[in-house]
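Board notes (copied after class):
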Amino acid sequence: MTLAYPLSDPRGARPAATLAETFERLGARMHFARDEEIYAQDDDADLLFQVVSGVVRTSRLTADGRRQVGDFYYPGDIFGLEPGPDHRFAAEALSACELMAVRRASVRAAAGEFEFNRAILEAARQEMERLQEHVLLLGRKSACERVASFLISLAQGRSDGPVELSMGRQDIADYLGLTIETVSRMLTRLQGEAIVEFPSLRAFRVRRWTALEALAG
């Protein structure tokens, strides 16, 4: 999967600081419209990106044409930091996005080989944690548990107000390994039981946290 981690994560303080300093000094601002491709699957991984505003989705097409959504990245996240020379996942703007981009070679030159490798290793460790959580979600949870877990991941740490749902139902389905019909049915169930409410198609509010957490398993 595409490697990414928030610069504020204290566990990766020095590697994060290395990248933060490089983005601040050498980063170039780039703007992408909604649904615009940032890079394609198997493109050269010569640029690193930091999300300034908006939301980014990574995805990969399988040999039979099915799509798997890798993850969603928010302001402060870095993505595109691959362990190899190519991007295994494509990246697209889910909404109008502002990104900071810096060349991988510039990070290596500015930080030095040792610090650059530390950043790669720290990102790989944190991404492995994300991957393990995703595998658990796909392999051990029911459809309702997956949807509930996903909503919790979006709403944690947010205010009691509406939480923006930047992705559509198909994106959620492709991330959770479900059909869009199943996702819609689970969301309707959660709303019908007054666990969550949807003031609009692209926003939700958690009304009963304990019930949602119980459903998430």
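Comment from the instructor: The longest helix spans residues 113-140. The domain at 5-131 is CATH 2.60.120.10 (Jelly Rolls).
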